[in-house]
Amino acid sequence: MNNMIDVVNLECDPAELVKADRVHTSLYTDAKLFDAEMEKIFYSTWVWVAHESEIPDAGSYKSTFIGKQPVIAVRDRKKQVNVLLNRCRHRGATVCEHKKGKTNSFVCPYHGWGYALDGSLRGIPHPDSYGECLDKSELPLVSLRTESYAGMIFATFKDDIEPLVDFLGPARKWMDLFMKQGAGYGIKVPGEHRFRFPGNWKIQLENTTDAYHFPLVHKSFLHSVDQQTMDMLDFVDGAGYVEDLGNGHSVMVMIPDLIDLEANLDLPIPTRFESLAQELRDEGIEEQQVRRIVRAVGGSGFNLNLFPNIACSMAFFRVLQPISVNETEIHHSVITMDGGPAVANRYRLRLHEHFQGPMGFGTPDDSEAWERVQKGASAGEDLWIMLNRGLPGEKPSEDGLVSDVSAETGMRAAYQQWKKMMSA
Amino acid sequence: MNLQLLQEVTAFIWAEGDMLDHNEYDTWLALWADKGTYIIPIDPKEEDFENTLNYAYDDAHMRQLRVQRLIGGESISTSPQPRTVRTAANFRVLSEDGDQVRVRCSQHLRDFRKDSLKHYSADLTYDLVRSGDSFQIQRKLIRLINSDDTLAGIGYIL
Residue A408 burial (CB < 10 Å; 0-12/13-18/19+)? Predict the structure, then answer.
């Protein structure tokens, strides 16, 4: 067949597997590539670990993963955020098994080694047997380089890569816009839906910048909302666009009117939010702020994909965690207004439940489609995944490249970054 | 122990489960009080369901939409529709106050769809209100024992 790749090359040259308009099926199916991705991508770049609201106080922590490695994001007594490898320096046991919580220290359950919130080793039971052969200052929990932007905390194993703000580049202005969903109260992440699907992590990465699937896969969801919302979500032939923002990041603008949630607040309030607006007015909130809150509750009109593992997706954070070449865990973290009106936050929670999660009206259908991709990709191992949609209309933009809303520009951006990192 | 009441609520909940296993959704919808809520929380210790994130927090409107989605044939995750068999046991009346009864039971549910057989165990707590010679559901609370683990898509009503 045409485009057949010499099998010998599969292991040694990932660059051959990514073309300008397509990627090779082995990117979904090759376990050796998956192992290489952990090393060359997840352990070599900035990976999102938490939103600052998830660890608000001294001692607040969250355990999570960077690639396959368990880590703890924890705020210490000086309010600094530390991202620590979740592994005792004695014999390797995890020191934290809870997903979230608050603590004064991390104590290994095996022999009782105790670590402070900044990872330093503080206590060792029965130390006499060590004599002079153990120096506590040499055995802290391994602490990763940690930086944050707009409340989003990232960590990396690499001390020599660019600062986070440079890695994010033009994506930063979209993060700032996304955070307007705080409506002046600030953003809070009070929970998430967690689920797994039997498929490669990049299938999900693509999906966050895929407007093309929406009217088909989410037909049952679209038929569960009012006509006005359905019209708003009818964006595939609309004025939206996808923009490559560099470093694998991209933004897909589905509803241009909802890029800046604080612009044009005088526009009519959508019918579905009228009763919420009235309840807010009844609480004595002034009209402009009512409109700002209502706008925030509805969510942003874009998905910002940040390579490799996080997206600011309309009204929630989408986090992906690779488990194996054919299994991926996804978290859809709900966003509320920190200290905002309870009635508005409730609306927000119900909207999230409506679409997201294992019993949502959207997620299970996405999940089914991704599963089908993984299943189908086991056929025709010399075939390619096509990513050429929107190429003819693609043009240079201020920040990179731009094409129509259902273009595969964002996927091409991610795979070019994949190629660059995997070839390094 | 009020064995007659225990028998009445047991019969009601068994019938409810049977309706769901046999896709009798209109009959199922009619079991509910107008303001009834169907809740599947995430955090096993959560009590404030309204102000937290759940898997489902359905009022009458959402229940209707959920049924429509399951039978509408437009959702690729529910066609083919999953088949389910559920067993409810260990019924215990927690409280009785006039027309109001709170009853708890355990539920084991097996679902099969395509090539996969799954198992969900849950504690169910029903708030029932007497209605004629039967009951209406004011609240059905489903606490999955693995609610805080990762779940796969659930394309039916628990």
Answer: buried
Which 8-state DSSP code applies to residue A54?
Answer: G
Backbone angles phi, psi at A390, to 5 degrees: 80, 5
How far apart (Å, rounded) are the C-alpha atoms in residues A306 and A284?
39
Kindly report, as residue ranges, where domains of CATH 2.102.10.10 are found in chain A: 47-156
Distance CA(A334)–CA(A345), nearest Å, equals 10
pLDDT surpasses 80 at A7:
no
For domain A47-156, give the CATH superfamily.
Rieske [2Fe-2S] iron-sulphur domain (2.102.10.10)
- CA A406, A295, B43 angle in degrees (round to 5)? 90
Helix (H, G, I), strand (E, B) or coil at A299: coil
Asked if the ipTM is above 0.95, the reply is yes
The answer to whether A219 contacts B74, with C-beta atoms less than 8 Å apart, is yes
Contacts of B74 in chain A (CB under 8 A): 219-220, 223
According to CATH, where is 3.90.380.10 located in chain A? 169-423
Cα separation, A366 vs A195, in Å, equals 12
Q: Which residues of A touch B68 (CB under 8 A)?
A: 223-224
In three-state secondary structure terms, A256 is helix
With beta carbons under 8 A apart, name residues in chain A contacting B150.
Answer: 194-196, 329
CA-nearest of A310, A280, A285, A311 to A297 is A280
The reply to whether residue A223 touches residue B72, judged by beta carbons under 8 angstroms, is: yes
The minimal CB distance from A352 to the residues B53, B77, B148 is found for B53
Domains of chain B: 3-144 (3.10.450.50)
Inspect the interface and report whether the beta carbons of B153 and A358 lie closer than 8 Å: yes
Q: Which amino acid appears at position A298 of this protein?
A: G
What pLDDT score was predicted for residue A13? 86
Instruction: Provide the CATH number for the domain formed by A169-423 in this structure.
Output: 3.90.380.10
Q: What is the pLDDT of residues A156-182, one digit of tens each?
A: 999 999 999 999 999 999 999 999 999
Q: Mutation test of the interface with chain B: which of A100, A220, A323, choosing the one with the most B Cβ atoms within 10 A? A: A220
Query: Residue A167 in contact with residue A46, Cβ under 8 Å?
Result: yes
Q: Which residues of B touch A229 (CB under 8 A)?
A: none
**Eight-state DSSP code of residue A269:** P
Contact (CB<8Å) A217/B72:
no
CA angle A286, A288, A292 (to 5 degrees): 115
